[in-house]
Amino acid sequence: MSVSVLVGSQWGDEGKGKIVDILSEKYDIVARYQGGANAGHTIQIGEKQYILHLIPSGILREECECVIGNGVVIDPKALLDEIEFLENHNISIKGRLFISQNAHLIMPYHKLLDSISEKGDQKIGTTGRGIGPCYIDKYARKGIKIVDLLNRDELERKIRVNLEEKNNLLKKVYNHEELDVEKIISEYMAFDAAIDPYITDVPLYLNEAIDSGKKVLMEGAQGALLDVDHGTYPFVTSSNPTSGGACVGLGLSPTKITSIFGIVKAYTTRVGLGPFPTELDNEEGEKLRQWGAEFGATTGRPRRCGWFDAFLVKYSRMINGIERAAITKLDVLSNLDEIKVCVGYEQNGKKLKSFPTTEISLSKVQPVYESLPGWKQDISNITDYDSLPSETKEYLSFISVNCGFEISIISVGPRRDQTIVL
Ligand code: GDP
Ligand code: IMO
Ligand code: MG
């Protein structure tokens, strides 16, 4: 368990933040490998709640060092606000946060282009944080990186070149007001001093740490079904949250990884648009939303809710290589007489062999359900497995068998202490 990847196994918001916080007690370093401030990872300690967007969820453990890898896209303003928020809560950041010189910067035009694109015909329901446009520039080799903050002339040159193109696009294609080049240059020049102390050669730092015996937990954002390659494209994010993304996003060889851990919500949620076969677009779904407080940690949007989809999570297990899982939000199901689990999909009366990821094929499938008895009892204060009701154990075992992994953590509430470690 010395170098582990932690992935969201569904459409994000599985409770990764809470579980990273629990696990980080046993790790020296927690490293984020993709995504940006589109993520919202919640950690609750006692009555205090922290929502992290860019900084790894290990930051609340004083002895833990935290890394933001090259695969992450960083909005410098969001980063500095987060650092300030944590420091105001007496959490020290200096000397504990290491940011890759190769991470790309989110620029004001990325956020603007994200919002303009969402007003068009190809709406995705993004978080509006500029994620897609920033990754577009990265792959078009036009991006501006953290390391560019260190060279003022280069930073200015790159901003001018990019803005010439973006302003043309804004004016001629979108009929939008141009952005103020000088204002953006001076704004980004000012980030230099504040971010400088954290800039690190992350691959070297991490590889040396691992070679010296340190334990590293790689924290994914979003979830497998939001992966740009393996998710429900085009209704995905623009990075690779799946476990393979961890190596690319941090500069580590796959041979260093010793375990892969999946975070699995006891039912399914999704924010934004896109197919969702087990969605409960009715009163039952509304109940799950209220019981689970399913509102986005980044945008506050209501999350769409539905039954647990074992066929989807089994696919996620395969593409990620999940060996062990944390089942979260089990307490949310406590009021139900009967709980349904999707065990497969049918199309025209035929059972599907593999999980279809395209929008058209997913919209045509019929989920096949099995029903399990509810436990109708508050489990949110139970701290050992044996004390769980027999129906809860049956539900857990059903998930484990149908998805094909071992369950090693059960979460029965948002707080640190509402966790059963097996
Ligand atoms: P993440 O993006 O995967 O880190 O998840 P979010 O933080 O966006 O959403 C998970 C929400 O569920 C947060 O509000 C957590 O505080 C909360 N949560 C996490 N685990 C549990 C649990 O076991 N039970 C309940 N009721 N809430 C939980
Ligand atoms: P965490 O890490 C849930 C969704 C958005 C949208 C799609 C694309 O908290 O689990 P983007 O802004 O990334 O271009 O939006 O992806 N999305 C998330 N959904 N949890 C997240 O992160 C998400 N990050 C992005 O709602 O459907
Ligand atoms: Mg979230």
Task: Write up what this structure looks like.
By secondary structure, the protein is an alpha/beta fold. Helix content is 32%, strand content 21%. The chain contains 13 helices and 20 strands. It has helices at residues 16-23, 76-88, 108-118, 131-139, 152-173, 181-189, 191-195, 202-211, 244-250, 283-291, 310-320, 359-364, 390-403, and strands spanning 3-8, 29-32, 41-45, 48-52, 65-68, 73-74, 97-100, 104-105, 199-200, 216-219, 259-265, 268-270, 304-306, 308-309, 324-328, 338-347, 350-351, 366-373, 406-411, 419-421. Helix 3 crosses helix 4 and helix 5 packs antiparallel against helix 6 (181-189). The protein is globular and about 65 Å long. The model has no long low-confidence stretch (mean pLDDT 96). The structure holds guanosine-5'-diphosphate (GDP), 6-O-phosphoryl inosine monophosphate and magnesium ion (MG). Residues 8, 11-13, 38-41, 124-127, 129, 131-132, 221-223, 226, 235, 237-238, 271-272, 297 line the site of 6-O-phosphoryl inosine monophosphate.
Note the main attributes of this structure.
4-stranded mixed sheet, binds guanosine-5'-diphosphate, Adenylosuccinate Synthetase, Chain A, domain 1, Adenylosuccinate Synthetase, Chain A, domain 3, 21% strand, 422 residues, binds 6-O-phosphoryl inosine monophosphate, Adenylosuccinate Synthetase, subunit A, domain 2, globular, binds magnesium ion, 32% helix
Low-confidence runs: none
The CATH superfamily of the largest domain turns out to be Adenylosuccinate Synthetase, subunit A, domain 1
Shape descriptor reads: globular
**Oligomeric status of the shown chains?**
single chain
Which architecture of the largest domain does the CATH hierarchy give at level 2?
3-Layer(aba) Sandwich
How many domains is the backbone divided into? 3
By DSSP, the count of extended strands is 20
Gyration radius over CA: 22 Å
Structural class: alpha/beta
- CATH topology description of the largest domain: Adenylosuccinate Synthetase, Chain A, domain 1
Which ions, cofactors or small ligands are bound in this entry?
A: guanosine-5'-diphosphate, 6-O-phosphoryl inosine monophosphate, magnesium ion
Fraction of residues in H or I helices:
25-40%
State the distance separating the first and last CA atoms.
15 Å
Give me the number of helical elements: 13
Q: Report the portion of residues in β strands.
A: 15-25%
The profile of the biggest β sheet is: 10 strands, mixed
Strand order, main sheet: write it out. Answer: 9-7-5-2-10-1-11-15-19-20
Could you name the CATH class of the largest domain?
A: Alpha Beta
